[in-house]
Amino acid sequence: MVSEMQLALLENRIRNLIAPDSHAGADGTYRIRSLYFDDFEDTYYRENEMGTDPREKFRIRIYNGSAERISLELKRKQHSMTQKLSCRLTVDQCRELMAGRPLPFDPSHPPVLQKLNLLMRTRLLRPKVIVEYDRTPFVEKLGNTRITFDRNIRSSNAVQSFLEREIPGRPILPAGKQILEVKYDEFLPDHLYRNLQLSHLRQTAFSKYYLCRRFSPSGIRA
């Protein structure tokens, strides 16, 4: 977790060392919106709270409020390592899942979608919360490194409005607090590691989903 001033300093340091993500807009950012699922016992939320290892969660993701590209993702975390499996969804498929209705069985569906469908039937997985934020991404081929600055993290319970261009959101962090994420496969290049060092910065676990559920007006059952 960093301040806006710290992000500005880090961005100034690395801008000539790592390329902006080509998918970002003219201002170097794009808006990410994710619809997260959980079961009738809020298992994914509670596993996050307890630090269960391994753990996983499902989400549907779009960019810049557009339904042009809709992705279903299964995010798994084990021993501090993260794996993402994904597949594309059509608008009609997305709307069915948004409404909490599993899709008809189809053996041609990708494994990620088949697993979500199964859990929607057996564990009653349903859409729970929307997480939205503005991301400034940088990419480096060495180590498959991604450095992202995530600003204005906000939540919404308006799950049926997920595909609308604009939705209301509730900030979940104190004013001026943002998130720096550093992701890589096998190693973080030394020149980036050195330039990302600032005093008082410490690596910490952070779940946008967990905080958005925790501070959601609907709350979590005790």
| Biggest sheet statistics | 10 strands, antiparallel
Find the structural class using helix and strand composition. Answer: alpha+beta
The number of helical runs is: 6
Number of E-type strands: 10
> What Rg do the Cα atoms give?
18 Å
N-C termini distance: 28 Å
Order of helices and strands: EHEEHEEEHHEEEEHH
Form type = globular
Strand composition percent: 35-45%
Number of domains: 1
CATH superfamily: VTC, catalytic tunnel domain
- Helix fraction, binned, reads 10-25%
Known CATH architecture: Alpha-Beta Barrel
- Write down the CATH class: Alpha Beta
> What is the CATH fold-level name?
mRNA Triphosphatase Cet1, Chain A
Oligomeric state of the chains in view: single chain
Which whole number gives the mean pLDDT?
92
Low-confidence parts, pLDDT < 50 over ≥5 residues?
Answer: none
Describe this structure in words.
- The longest helix has 12 residues.
- The protein starts with a strand and ends in an 8-residue tail after the last helix.
- The radius of gyration is 18 Å and the shape is globular.
- The protein has six helices and ten strands, in the order E-H-E-E-H-E-E-E-H-H-E-E-E-E-H-H.
- The mean pLDDT is 92.
- A hairpin with a 2-residue loop joins strand 4 and strand 5.
- The protein is of the alpha+beta class.
- Helices cover 23% and strands 36% of the residues.
- The protein has a single domain, classed as VTC, catalytic tunnel domain (mRNA Triphosphatase Cet1, Chain A), CATH 3.20.100.30.
- Strands 1, 2, 3, 4, 5, 6, 7, 8, 9 and 10 form a ten-stranded antiparallel sheet that branches.
